[in-house]
Amino acid sequence: MAISQGHHAEKESVFKSVIKVKQKERQGMPAFLKTAGLALLFPILLLALWEGVTRFGLVAGHLLPAPSEIVGTIWAMGVDGSLWGHMGITLYRLLWGFFWGTIVAVVIGSLVAMSRNAETMFDPLIQAFRAIPSLAWVPLFILWLGIGEPSKVTLIALGVFFPVYLNVVGGIHSVDRKLIEVGKAYGLNQFQLVRRIILPASLPSFLTGLRSGLGLGWMFVVAAELLGASQGLGYLLVLGQNTLSPNVILASIVLFAFLGKVTDYALKKLQTRALHWQDNMKN
Amino acid sequence: MSIQVDKVSRTFQGTLAVDEISFEAKQGEIVGLLGTSGCGKSTILRAISGLDTEYDGTVCIHGKETRGTSRELGVIFQEPRLMPWLTVIDNVCFGLTGTKEENREKAREILRVVGLEDFEQHYPKQLSGGMAQRTAIARALVTAPSTLLLDEPFSALDAFTKLQLQDMVLELWESYKPTMVIVTHDIDEALYLCDRIVILKGQPGELHDNLEITQPKPRKKSDTKLAELKEYILESLDISRTPKQRKEA
């Protein structure tokens, strides 16, 4: 009797778990929506509150415009076409600075990481330069390169350089000696070791460097455009301040947030795709 | 290919680690370097492989003195040391120099031998310890090196996988009879695989004994002659008693 009861209980528990699995399958899609809903809940509430307090005159509307007004400003700029010019020039400056900063950081970083002599020669000087707040260079760049594009791109490239450089050097230094030995056991020469082991092994660190470099790039693009530009999202900040239009300032901030997020997302996608082989918590 | 190790010593930061070790591995012979930990077995193997060149003495491969790595030597390490960004098949192809298609064909063949043909597109993170080590063995074998150097290749594996891979190595050896030098601290493993056991002892490590084992392979683990040899090795390594007892005696 006891045996048959136990058997019955077992059957029942199997039955229950089957039902649970089926329920889970049915809830698959709503579960995804639930996460999205949960993530959006707080921002939407906040926006509604903001809209509410400005609409009902609880804060001064000429200092803090409603979200709808900011969207309206962006929309108007989109319609008259000026939006694309501002966004385009800012993106151009950022990407060009990011490109040069990265190239120089990879070349010098690899050299310093691979050769002890190069490290002794260059690294102390680079570290000393790193200690200088990069914005301190601005007056000099303007003096040397003028107020046009070169000084802006140089400033952004300088900002991108340091995080990428540090991560390239750190990444190469932390390549597992045991993997390099495998390459040596197969008689690979120095160049082959770099291409087949050191580069792929230091890729995770390099990509981390790229992402923090991009973050700093955005910071420096604002600095560069604040200091003297006739177009760009940073120029909109200055324009908004001078014409007492906080809606333009906030529109520029929203656009910075949007573009920053999009470019970082692209790099993050690249990172996930290139590093799918990594054995870590996320994978 | 034969290997002659002649009076090889190695000093690390002023401390002598191995002292004038000499032995020979004839062509097609499996030689075991056996000893307790810290006696310099791996140091000797690294000298033979050419990964370490700072030793005194000479290593001759096929009668020619060499110092440095050579494509004639295949090395299997204690850990699999697979490239985590390469799939199993690309890891196996790592040391090959031919065209991609040729290499893949060779790699597939060897993956069938080690029983990993269904895992060629897997990444190292998806493999168990035994599978990863089998991949490493395949990577070393695919270039068909005339000499294989194995540095405690099975010490990190569970007992069952270990037995399985020991048999696999023996089968591979049967197929083209490469010369093999295998570092181990496992007496049973040495007795099961080797034609000659070089026993190292002490710190700095010195050559203690050089035993030839004539029993034909494959051997039975229960062979009485092997059991006697095991007893002899245990006694000569002086590890059947604790150090304290030794002092008292």
Automatic annotation (TrEMBL), chain A:
Transmembrane stretches, start-end: 31-50, 94-113, 125-147, 153-175, 244-263
Span of domain ABC transmembrane type-1: 87-267
Membrane topology: Multi-pass membrane protein
Gene3D superfamilies: MetI-like (1.10.3720.10)
Primary localization class, coarse: membrane
One example of a Gene Ontology biological process annotation: cellular response to sulfur starvation
One GO cellular component term: plasma membrane
SUPFAM superfamilies: MetI-like (SSF161098)
InterPro entries, per the entry: MetI-like, MetI-like_sf
Cellular compartment(s): Cell membrane
UniProt xrefs under Pfam families: BPD_transp_1
Keywords carried by this UniProt record: Cell membrane, Membrane, Transmembrane, Transmembrane helix, Transport
CDD domains cross-referenced by the UniProt entry: TM_PBP2 (cd06261)
Alphabetical list of PROSITE patterns matching this protein: ABC_TM1
PANTHER family (UniProt xref): ABC TRANSPORTER PERMEASE PROTEIN (PTHR30151:SF39), ALKANE SULFONATE ABC TRANSPORTER-RELATED, MEMBRANE SUBUNIT (PTHR30151)
Protein family (similarity comment): Belongs to the binding-protein-dependent transport system permease family.
Annotated protein name in UniProt: Sulfonate transport system permease protein
Species this chain originates from: Alkalicoccus daliensis
Organism lineage string: Bacteria, Bacillati, Bacillota, Bacilli, Bacillales
From TrEMBL, chain B:
Occurrences of domain ABC transporter (ranges): 3-227
Protein known as: Sulfonate transport system ATP-binding protein
InterPro entries: AAA+_ATPase, ABC_transporter-like_ATP-bd, ABC_transporter_ATP-bind, P-loop_NTPase
Pfam families assigned: ABC_tran
Molecular-function GO term, any one: ATP binding
Alphabetically ordered keywords of this record: ATP-binding, Nucleotide-binding, Transport
Organism: Alkalicoccus daliensis
